[in-house]
Amino acid sequence: MENRAVENGVCSTESVNVSSDVWSCKNSDSSSADHLVIMVHGILGSNTDWKFGAEQFVRTLPDKVFVHCSEKNMFRLTLDGVDVMGDRLAEEVLEVIQRKPNLQKISFVAHSVGGLVARYAIGRLYRPPKKENVEDSTDGTSIDDLKATIGGLEPMNFITVATPHLGSRGNKQVPFLFGVTAFEQAANLLIHWIFKRTGRHLFLNDDDEGKPPLLKRMIEDYGDCFFMSALRIFKRRVAYSNVCYDHIVGWRTSSIRRNIELPKWEDYINKEYPHIVYEECCKACDTEQSELVSTDDDSFDKLEEELVTGLSRVSWEKVDASFHTCRQRFAAHSVIQVKDQSMHIEGADVVQHMIDHFLL
C-alpha cells in the first residue's frame, strides 16, 4: 500500500516505510517540473539512501525536478550482477516516464556500484536519432526527432559518486585491502562467495560465454547496448570521488584517473564547499595514451588502462572530496552521499555542490 508524506513543502510517496518519488507539494511547481532525476543506490542499499539528496534537490529546484529513487534493486538484489540490475533499472525508468508524460529531460545521480548500474541502464535506454540529419527531415519532423535520447528524454547530467568505474581488482582499488597483493589475490578468489555475480563484475573476473569482462564491454557500444553512445549524449558527466578514508572504493577508480594523474589537493581551499578539495574539467581524448603510462608505476594494469582510455573518450568533470577533518571520516563512502543524515550531515555541502552545478 502506498501513502503520501509531506515535509517542509516536499511530497514523497511512501510504501512499506520507504519513499520512491519526491516532488514539490506546490501544484504549480509539480506541474511545471519536467526534469526527471533518477537516483541510484549502491550495493546492499535501498532507495532511502538518497532521501536527503532527493529532498535537497526538490527544495532547491521545486519547479524544475521530479526525483525518483530507484527501488527495483534493493538489498540482496544488488548481488545479481551489474547487467541484471541495469536491465531492471532501465525498465523502472521507462515505467516512471510512462506515468509522467510531461517529462522532457533526464539526469542520473548514482552512488557506488549504482554508477555502473546506471551506465548499463542508459546503454539499454539509448534511442538513436530518428533521422540521420536535418537535410533528410520533412517539414513535419520536429527537431527533437533528430536527436538521440535516453528513453525518449533529453539527457542532461550523468553524475556518479564514489563509483568504481575501473573495477575493484587490486592495485589499491579497494583500500581496506591495504594494497597487499596476497589480500587482493585472496579477495579475487573469494569475492563471488560474498558479493555473488556483482562481485565478479567488480573484480573483472566474469567470463560470460567467452565474452570480455562486463566493465570492458561497457567502454564501447557492445551488441544491442549503446553504452558509450548513451554516455556521450549527456550534456555533462561528473565523477565525485573521495581522496581518502573511503575504504571501499579507491580514488583512482572513482575518479577515472591513472596513478600519475592524481592531483595534489592538500592546499586547495573552497570556502563555499569546505569538503570539495579539487575540481577539474577533463576534455574528451580520442588518442591512445598508453605510452604516457610508465610501466615502472606499481599501479599499472593493462586492463585498467583500457578502461581509463575508453572512458576518457568523453569529457568528465572531476570533483574530489575529503572528509579527513570530520568525526565520521572513516565512513567517507557513505558520508559523501549523506546516506544517514543524522550521522553524516558533513556531506551536505557536496550534495549542494551537485545541485548548484546541475544543468537544467
From TrEMBL:
Native organism taxonomy: Eukaryota, Viridiplantae, Streptophyta, Embryophyta, Tracheophyta
GO biological process: lipid metabolic process
Annotated source species: Populus trichocarpa
Entry protein name: DUF676 domain-containing protein
Every DUF676 domain range: 31-253
InterPro entries: AB_hydrolase_fold, DUF676_lipase-like, Lipase-like
PANTHER family reported in the protein's UniProt record: LIPASE ROG1-RELATED-RELATED, LIPASE YOR059C ISOFORM X1
A Pfam match: DUF676
Top-level taxon in the UniProt lineage: Eukaryota
